[in-house]
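Quick question, first post here. What does this chain look like in 3D?
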Amino acid sequence: MTVAPTSASARASLTRPEAEIEGQKCRILLEQMLAVDVSRLTSWIGVLDDREMEALDDALRLYHGLI
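> Answer (accepted):
Ran it through. Tokens below.
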């Protein structure tokens, strides 16, 4: 599974989409994406809403040079 850390204090960037996790706004740090074995994931944090998922999709396309 591919995961990316989040930060409440990271600077805004086109490749750092904003999300709200457990009621706190944060940025998804796509430049720090990594693959992990699913068995290492121990807790559920939440899901992105449609707007957040669209922003994440756009940022991933930009990050990978697809747009």
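The longest strand covers residues 24-28.
The beta strands are 2-3, 6-7, 18-21, 24-28, 34-35.
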